[in-house]
């Protein structure tokens, strides 16, 4: 690991810390640490404030440090060129990977992350209370039901939950907190089916489970940003990055597999169940909500 990345990772872990502690924790010499911090400060990525005596408190510059949240899914390979283009514009980008969408949306709302991809249903609900903005689409579909859709497990406030309500109105939906708990519940017989996304749908299929239903290609997770970010700037970079992704999907799926620590061939197969589309018609989403008897002010 190079010295700059080591120092950035330590600042990311601690939030802020004295420069003397940074030298000790990084194992990098005092002079080299000072050189790296001077460069990072010049580029606007960190700020240093004087403490008592000669020591300095080091922290990220919130205007240059972006935290992006995603769910562990095959859905987001397009974030790879997005990350690259943000970094080329001088941002330091951290990606946080979550087990479910409601936690992503909550952390955007609380300012724990700056933007994220999570179920549009949860983003709409949270946007009525908190200052988050839904600014773009990402992918459609990419999910289905394994098993008989009578007693169906689903993560809470997710697209799968909404789609199950739409397609199987008599089904009983049982809430779960993660894909692992869904798969465990199915294996133990606690539920008869799971409404689940890729790559877990393909994983279950490869183990001999029958996919009984594939959901229509409706927007699943959308991009929302916290209050205070430059919406137009972020959206412009995102849309340009999305076009870059669409012109060379295989390249970005490979680097995305590395980010997730997943098998490339699995993600390549799983990604084919998605329709990648950055355009979002929010009225279309409200119409689907009404069909499921979910009424929210627009």
List the helices and strands and how they pair.
Blueprint (H helix, E strand, L loop, with lengths): L2 H12 L1 E3 H8 L3 H13 L3 E5 L5 E5 L4 E7 L7 H10 L3 E7 L2 H9 L5 E5 H8 L5 E4 L1 E4 L1 E5 L3 E5 L3 H9 L4 E5 L2 H10 L4 E5 L2 H7 L4 E4 L6 E5 L5 H17 L1 H12 L3 H8 L2 E4 L4 H10 L7
Parallel strand pairs: 4-5, 4-6, 10-11, 10-12
Antiparallel strand pairs: 1-3, 2-3, 6-14, 7-14, 8-15, 9-12, 9-13
Helix pairs in contact: 4-10, 5-6, 11-12
Total discrete domains: 2
Global outline: elongated
Structural class: alpha/beta
State the end-to-end distance.
48 Å
Rg, Å, rounded = 21 Å
Mean pLDDT, to the nearest integer, reads: 93
Question: How many extended strands?
Answer: 15
**Which CATH architecture of the largest domain?**
3-Layer(aba) Sandwich
Q: Which fold name is given in CATH as the topology of the largest domain?
A: D-Maltodextrin-Binding Protein, domain 2
Unreliably modeled segments: none
Following the backbone from N to C, one meets helices and strands in this order, namely HEHHEEEHEHEHEEEEHEHEHEEHHHEH
- For the largest beta sheet, what order do the strands appear in spatially? 5-4-6-14-7
Question: Any idea of the CATH class of the largest domain?
Answer: Alpha Beta
Number of helices: 13
**Share in helix:** 40-55%
The named CATH superfamily of the largest domain: Bacterial extracellular solute-binding protein, family 7
